[in-house]
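Re: beginner question about structure tokens

> Can someone show what the tokenized structure looks like for a real chain? I only ever see the sequence side.

Sure, here's an example I had lying around. Input first:
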Amino acid sequence: MKEYFGDSLKSYTQTKVAERLLNPAIEAMLSKVKGRNIKMLDFGCGQGILYPIAQKLGFLYSGTDISPDQISAAKRLYPKGDFSVCDARKYKNHKKFDIVTVSMLLPLLSSKSDIVSILKTSRKHLKKTGTLLIAVTHPCFDHYMRFGILGWKNVSTEFSGYFTSGVEYKTEHPMPSGSFVFDDFHWTLSDYFELIQSSGFVIERLNECPPDEKYRSDEKFWKRRNDYPTYLIFYCRLTNDRC
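And the corresponding structure tokens:
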């Protein structure tokens, strides 16, 4: 996670893949939440990527991130946004939110206990009718799996098969201002189901973020992103006995 602090961020930006696949899918799923003055809490908000979506939908947005450098960037990009530095595992606020989003944060965590800690904090700050939205790299086709199946050269790891949970892998990703190198951890689909449900949530919907038909003309992008999924989003509610 150290790559999201300091000078490492100079080469970091959101990828075209996320802009085309992940963001529209998140917006579509958040748009299902109806009501007035909807309050949204964004854990691991980074540089405020979801802030424009929240603004477009009319939500009252609050974003937190463990990296002060990410928060500084978010405040520069969106000076009217409510951003604060905080470890999502230790977040405390008297407010209750209609929506909590945890986008691309869980794959950064090296232990199931850390994942559960964030999910339980999310539960604590949700209204009884609230929605938890979790976005992750698709565990069946994350960079760890692409290294093993496709032999990708920009990924380094001790590949030991899909069912080995918690394996760390390092990926070098080209960015407009240089390569960005990051470390993530591989968690299986079963891991996510088990941890989400044991933390007091029921999964109502899944979205595997397929490419929109309008990108079919970009043949290279279309083929790669249509051949296998890149992201996975869980749309969750509180279970009745945990409210």
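Each token stands for a local structural state, so reading them left to right follows the chain. The radius of gyration is 17 Å.
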